[in-house]
Amino acid sequence: MSGAAKGAAPIRAALARLGCDRRIAAPGEVIAAAGEAPGRVGLILGGWLYHLRTEPDGRRQITDLMTAGDLVAPGFPCGAAPGLAAYALTRAELCEFEGESLLRASNADPELRLWLMALMQRQRRRLEARLVDLGLRSGSERAARALVEIAMREGTGRPPARSLDLSLPLSLRFFGELLGLSTAHVCRIFKDFERRDVAHYETGRVRIHDFERLMRLGNVTPAELATFAASAAAPPDLPPETCAEAR
Hints:
There is one protein chain. Residues 1-6 have low confidence and may be disordered. The longest helix has 27 residues, at 110-136. Helix content is 43%, strand content 22%. Helix 2 (99-108) packs across helix 3, helix 4 (139-154) crosses helix 8 (222-230) and helix 5 (172-179) crosses helix 6. The protein has helices at 3-18, 99-108, 110-136, 139-154, 172-179, 183-195, 211-217, 222-230; strands at 20-25, 30-32, 40-46, 49-54, 60-66, 71-72, 84-88, 92-98, 164-165, 199-202, 205-208, 243-244. The chain is α+β, with helices and mostly antiparallel strands.
């Protein structure tokens, strides 16, 4: 057994003792409504989800993209997060735990607590990086960095070959809400990427032609690439008896 597998064994055992409900979410399904108290915490087993903040005037900002190994529970463990909701972007599979039970178990189990803190810290680092992007970087830099991050997370942390097709569906509106840009601005950015033969967008799909050039356009450092790779960590391989039937 590898060191990673040995390290995951106590987490698997702790989560198995808690038990959970396995949930299959369809694209667009609401996982947690805005302002809803985080009574349940979802561990994503597969697929993509996102957190969306909607302002009273209707403006929208995607604050995080989440996939296998991430937690989805807006406001957990501090309480309801006004205006913040969670949605499935693709078909997704989750194990949902009772939030209070998970907190009590983590207080009693140091290894489970460290694992939970590491997941929340990983998502916090992504949020901090997104804030820096929104405040300091140009639209083209933001777009390039987002595509590099998605490619790394889809590739389970390994840099892809020179070119690749992203499987994640990305409408221009969705990408704009992720980057804090208008749909028209995103369209201009992709036209520029196509002119440079770096990436091509067509009907919700993105093909990256030159990953290294895309990294340079986004000013992505090796350390940042490693951070993107760390976000591709898989969830623990839970025993089948951990989760109740899918709903």
